[in-house]
Each structure stands twice: as C-alpha cells, then as structure tokens.
Amino acid sequence: MPPSIPGPASPLLELAIELDRTGPRPLAVQLADALRLAATRGQLRRGDRLPSTRALARHLAVSRTVTAAAYEQLHAEGWIAGRHGSGTYVTAAPPGAEGVSRGGEVHEDESASFRGTLLTPGAPWAEGIDRAAWRRAWRAAGDNAPATLPHRAGVPEYRAAVVEHLLRHRGLVVEGPAENSVLATGGTTSALAELAASVLPRGAAVAVEEPGYQRAVEALHASGLEVVPAPVDYSGVVVDSIPEHVSALYCSPAHQYPIGGRLPAQRRIALIERARAAGWLIVEDDYDGELRYDVSPLPVLASMAPDVVVHLGTTSKILTPTLGVGWLLAPEWVSQAILEYRELTGTRPAPAGQWLLTELARNGDLGRHLRRLRRELSGRRELLVATLAGAGIESAGDRAGAHILVPLGGADSEREVLARLRARGVLVDGLSRHHRFEQQWYGVALGYAACSREELRATLPTLVRELGGE
Q1: Which CATH class is domain 111-121+367-468?
Q2: How far is Cα 245 from Cα 207, in angstroms, rounded to an integer?
Q3: SUPFAM superfamilies, alphabetically (predicted)?
C-alpha cells in the first residue's frame, strides 16, 4: 500500500491510476494520459486541487521526475495551472464532456493561466481605460471620509450617477427619487442572487434563456429555485415558448448572451403583456447595453414596463469586472425586499468601486471612455466579421457588444475547432458551455475585446483556417 498523504485530500488521490511499468511508453506519458482522461470523464473537475508532484510521486510509488514531467505536459496543454502560494488546479475540460464547467463563460482561472490570444466573450477592453483618468478618479474617491454606518442601498452619490448614466446611455428615465428604486449591487450575478433570496418564493420556477448565462442558473439554483428553459432564436427569447408556471423570466434582450440577437419591439410588447397577465417578474440583464454600433438601442424593458421589470446593469463590460460594481432598478416593493434582506444578513456592496465610478462620471471621463470604447470595438467587429465573410464563414449576432457567434454543425465540430485553436494558441468559447437542457445550438463565441487589435489581426488567418474557410 502506498503511504498516506498528509494535508488536504485531492480527488486525484481517490482515483485508481494504473501505470504499466514494463511497457515501452514512458511513465510520465502514461500518467499525463490518465489525468487527461480523468478530466474528460468528469472524475477530475475544473477547480479541483491536485496534490504536489512530491505527494503524488509518493502516492504512486514513482520518481518525482515522472509526476513533474506529467504536470509540465498538462500545464503546457492548458489542462492545469498553478496558483502562487496555493497549489495546482484543474483548469480545463473538453466542451460537452462530463464534468465540464457549467459556467456561462470560459472559466476565469483558465483564461488567466492561458498563454496565447484570448478571444473569449465576457472580457472587457481594459487596456483602453485612460490610466490618468483612472488614477485621478481613485485619488478623488480616496478623499471621501470613511463612513460610520454602511450604505445598504449604495452610496447616494453613486446612485445619482447611475440615474444620470441610464438617462444618457440607455435612454431610461428614472421616475421619482433614486432612493426609492435604484440600488447599488456587486454586479448582475450578485444582484440576481439577492433577488432570488429575498423576492422569489423558494421552490418557484424561473425561466432562463437556453442557451444562456449559466452563472445566472447557478445563482438561482443556490437559492432553491427551479430553473426551466426559455428557448431562443437569433432574435432572442421566443415569448410563446416560455413555460406558463414560472414566477420570473431572466433574459438579456439588448444583446442575447451568447447568441447575440436583439429582442424585436413586437416580442418586447408580447413579453410584457404575458408578464402582466401571469404575474411574472422580468429580470432584464443589460450587461453590455451601452455597446451598440449601428442604431440607437431599443428602449430597455424597464422603461416600457417599470411595474414588472427588474433592470440589472454592470460596469464589468465597460470598465473591468474586478471593480465589482453594478446597479438594480426595480419596482419599489422589490427594492425594499432586497434592502430588508441586506439588513438581515448584514450584506451590502462595497463602496470603493461606487466612489470610483462616481468620480469618473463627475469629470466626464466615463462618457469619454464609452465613446472611445464604442469606436474601438466597432472597428474590431467590422474587421473580424469582414474577414470571416471574405472566407465564406458565416457569423451571427447584432452589431453590438464584444463577441460574435460562428455556428457549427454539431458537437464534434465544436470540440474539434476548440481543440485545434487551443493547440495554436487561441482560446475561444464553445456554445456547449452555455446549455443546461437539451442542446440544439453548436458553435464558437469569439470575443474581440480582451486582446489587442494587433493580436486580433495576427490571429485572423488562424481563425479562418481552423473555422473552415477557404
């Protein structure tokens, strides 16, 4: 029996790994193959911590050289990654395989550890933030005196800045005092989690776009809610297909994630009529509603039906997700329920990011950044779409946001394309990650914000070749 290993247990140590010590294949190759297969089968999952090379060598009764070589190979392929001072973790699994992350995007650890060109959706153009404006805003934010009591609803100046932002960039007029309806949040997912915990009855059914944002699904599940699919097409959620028995619908009408369509006016009206008739809440995730490049965006649902719509916004796509700042606009009874929940649990969004956004807005730096952001991403999108079209490759999605969709014929095609691109140093996202129920969509979502324009241009020939262009 191998000796017991002290310290935190790893799922890897529970696997029966058999190494052929008499065969011609090196032990390191056998071990790497075994770990790769375990991740594919779901025996090892993204986020699982692996034992150290020394501990695994003792467990398998092999030389540490063997385990180190196996880890090095898997690290180079992007299956595992080390975190400084923490250890080594599984970071990847093939799309559609058992045990693949159900997160709506490529896992953050995977993107952070990947050494290549990131073309994953959901990431902002952080390099485009004016560093002088950024530093100036932080200095001004730091001049605010420490608060004695927490602002459960959010810093008042921040909430006022959000009202102005919604008017200027989303055409949404907030009626009445901001304190009656606008709350600061930690982002759209945390806002949805608070809504689920404080407003929606435990066990109630909530419809979520399918395919859709899987972190929203997990947030709803964590609050004991039933999630049911709301099918989408290239124009967004199909209103007539939403199940009758739901208490709420979570959707992204401005730029459906991940397909990229915009919900037409006729469907918006039909959706609001169904919600009012059935007593639903509509949760409108406006995650990148500021980013449209062809026409003015359609009015947000909250401006059409403030009585049944909870509007969620975030700075994660226009600035950076590390800021952890968003907002919620809802009927007053919903806002009050969330405030009572915060009071009971002692939770509230952190004020630092709120003060930063307030200062960026106060000086006009936020507006300047958004104008620059729209110009840059519009040009990148045109470059990407035109290159693919010139090679005979179909793409989908409105002229908006920071990603497009390239449809593919099936699961095998999707897996093969992702693997080939990864092998050539390009990380993209597959639609398989965005399904929770029966899968009907296959393809890759290409983000064009996280990399530089030069990286995007240099990667285009690889994309054309691996996506099947002539």
Answers
A1: alpha beta
A2: 9
A3: PLP-dependent transferases, Winged helix' DNA-binding domain
Identity at 287, one-letter amino acid code: Y
Architecture of domain 131-365: 3-Layer(aba) Sandwich (3.40)
Residue 55 φ then ψ, to 5°: -65, -40
Span 80-90, average pLDDT: 75
Please tell me the predicted confidence (pLDDT) of residue 45: 76
d(CA 289, CA 309): 16
Q: Residue 283: which residues within 8 A CB-CB, separation 6 or more? A: 192, 195, 248, 249, 250, 251, 309, 310, 312
Beta-bridge partner residues of 227: 206
CB 293 within 8 A of CB 381: yes
Q: Give the span between the Cα atoms of 404 and 396, in whole angstroms.
A: 6
Task: Report the alpha-carbon distance of residue 307 to residue 301 in Å, rounded.
Answer: 10
Q: Do domains 111-121+367-468 and 131-365 have the same CATH topology?
A: no
pLDDT (tens digit per residue) in 183-213: 999 999 999 999 999 999 999 999 999 999 9
Query: For 85, left (φ over 0), alpha (ψ -120 to 50), or beta?
Result: left
- Comparing C-alpha atoms, which of 50, 44, 61 is closest to residue 7? 50
Rounded CA-CA distance 278/355 in Å is 40
pLDDT digits over 209-262, tens only? 999 999 999 999 999 999 999 999 999 999 999 999 999 999 999 999 999 999
- CATH 3.30.1330.40, applies to 27-90: no
